[in-house]
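Intended use. Records such as the Probable sensor domain-containing protein entry shown here are meant for training and evaluating sequence-to-structure methods. They are not intended to support clinical decisions.
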Amino acid sequence: MSEFKTPNDLAAFVFSELNRSKIQDAKPSEEILREIFNTLYYTSLQTEEGQFIKVTVTLLDHNSTAKGKVLAYDDWAFYPFKPAIEFTVKNLVKLSKAADPWSSSLAVYYNDQGELFINGMIDQTIHYQSFLNYEREEKPAHPGIFQTMINGIGILNVMLDYQPIASLNQNSLVKHYPNVFGIGPISEYLKRNIQYNHSFFEELIEEKLSESDVDICNRLVLDYTIQSISRILLKIKNYHHGGAVLITKDFKKDLNVKYQLGYDRIEQAIMHILKAITDEEFLDDEVRNLRRAGSDMPIKLHRDYLATEDEIDESYNELIGAIRFTSSLSCVDGLVLMSPNLKVKGFGTVITEKEQPPYIRVNKNATPGTRITKISPSHFGTRHQSMFAYCYKHPDSLGFVVSQDGEIRAIKCVEGEVMMWENIKVYQFIKSNKMPKLPLPPKPPRK
C-alpha cells in the first residue's frame, strides 16, 4: 500500500522546490503554503449548485503589479477587489462560478501577519490554458510566483510557469510525469507504426524530396499525432465521466464494435498541415531569393503566400475540430477504437477477451527500469481490466484509460508483460528556467 499523503505533504515538497528555485519574489513560508493547499483541498470537496468546484489560484504579489499594465494586447492583467476578500473555502466556492480556469485566475497573497486574501482577478488566462492543451503554439506571458489548480475532488496541481512542481491526487503525491510519448516502449510503438514512404510524401507535397526531407516529414507527422492523442485524452478528462482509447491494427478480434465508423479527419488534417507548412517554406525560399537579388515580389507570389497562410490556419482549425469530434465519441459507454494513424474505426466498443495477465507492472518512468511496482489486475476496475486483457493477448496494441477522477494511464504489453504508466505527460509542459538543473547521479566505480 502506498503512503497516505495530505496537503501538508504537498506544502512541504513545494516549499523545498521553491527554496531551491531562482524566483526573485519573496518566497512564502511552509506555513502559508499549508494554509493555501489545505483551503484549496477542502474547497475541492465542496459543490456549488450541484457542480464540482474548478478554480485556479495564483500566488501573486499584487503590490508590485500595476493594474492594467499590458505588454501585448492579449497579455494578462491584474484587477483588484475593493476591499480584498478573505481566503476561505466559502469565498472560493462562491467565486469559482465567476472564475472559470480557462478564462481567469484568482490572485492571492498574504500580509505582514501571514493572513491570506483574495486580492483580485487575473484575466486572459485562456492563452495559458490553450498553450498547455496544445491549442496555441506561442508561449504567453505568465503571472505570479506559482499557481494551483483544482482539477477534481481532492486533486490539486501546482505549476511554476509551464512546469508542474507536484500534484496531490487525493491521497498520493505525484512528482513525476513520465514522458511516454518521447521515450520508451510507447514512443517506439508510435514511431514504428506511423511511417509514410517516400512516394507518399512526394505525391502529397508535389515536390521531389530527399531521404532527409522524408525523415523530417515523418517526424512532423509523429509530433502532430502525439499532440492529437494528448489532446483527445485531455478532452476526455475534462468530460469527468472517464473513457478509454484503444489503438490497434486488428479491429475485429476480441472486440464488439457497437458503432462502426470510418473517420479519418485527424489524419487528413495532419497531412493538410504538413503540406501547408512545406508550401510556406518553399515560398519563403523564393521570397528570400528575391530579396537577395533586390527584386520586387510578383503579385502572384504575394497572393500565393497569403493563400498558404490561410491554408495553415484552416488546417489547424480542421485538426481542432476533428479532435473535439473524436473526443466526444467517448461519451458513449465503451472505448474509442483507432488505428495508429488515428483513423477512428468505431466507438461504444466492448473488449470481449477476459483472460487477465498474472500481474501488472506499474512504471514511474517512461522506460521500464527500477521504479516498477508489481500489482494484481484485480486492484483495478473493469475498464482497466478489459484493457489489460486485450493488450496481454494483442501485444501490438496500445491502450489509454481515463478514470472519472481524471487520472490518465497508458497500457502496453512489453516482452510478454503488461505494463502501465500513471500520470503520463499529456500537457505541453516546459521546464522553467527558474528551476536549477538536478545534479547528475554519480558514476559507478570502475571494477
